[in-house]
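Table S4 entry, Membrane protein.
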Amino acid sequence: MVDRPRAAIAAKTLRTDRWWLAPLLTVLGLVAWLAYATVRVFMQKWYFHEGPGFHYLTPFYSPCISNGCSEQSAEFGRFLPANALIPFAALTLPFLLLFRLTCYYYRRAYYKSFWASPPACAVPDGHKTYSGETRFPLIFQNAHRYFFYAAVIISIINTWDAIRAFSGTEHIGFGLGNLILLGNVVMLWAYTLSCHSCRHITGGRLKHFSKHPLRYRFWIFVSKLNAKHMLLAWITLGTLALTDFYVMAVSAGWFSDPRFIG
């Protein structure tokens, strides 16, 4: 059999479709969300709204532990110094950022979009060398499983916020804000539990599923969520921004919270 030399192709890729569109949309989506979240986190106002039958706290400020927080919004105390450069929820925001930053889906998203590593199938990598996640700083991606535990704790806090939102200054009530807070919490739990680390924790080391029927059922449930991990990652970015914007809007007095009960 005669070896044939490869064809000399000068073009970087022979793809003629719009392969660049998906990475571009990812960049625009993530940059827009990060810009909004950064502005809101350091705005330090319009984060809490309380009255008869409602107690709304945006997830961007939960738990509100700064001395700058209003007393009613600080469910877990106020012990951080008030400073324009320190977010009111400085204790949890870094862990949430690291959980998402090291998430398996988000790694794929920003590797392909921001780093062009590679930007698409059959398109060359934008870097001459590749060492994977074995060197600084990408070696810290391996800490994702530990950030998952922190995300679970934060999801519990967000769940408490959603429950607490029904009880206001005078009585228990139910409004549109409660629906938005509850919907956000449900989506956050779905995204957190769909994490690959969660799937491994629930069933990754089991040798006999038959001996652990409860864990097996939960593993099946988590596996179904895991198949929608990418979708849930984007949905939760949307629900977080929507929830924060709604609390900001009613707190600023742009419109009133429609009440169903109370």
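The chain is about 50% helix and 5% strand.
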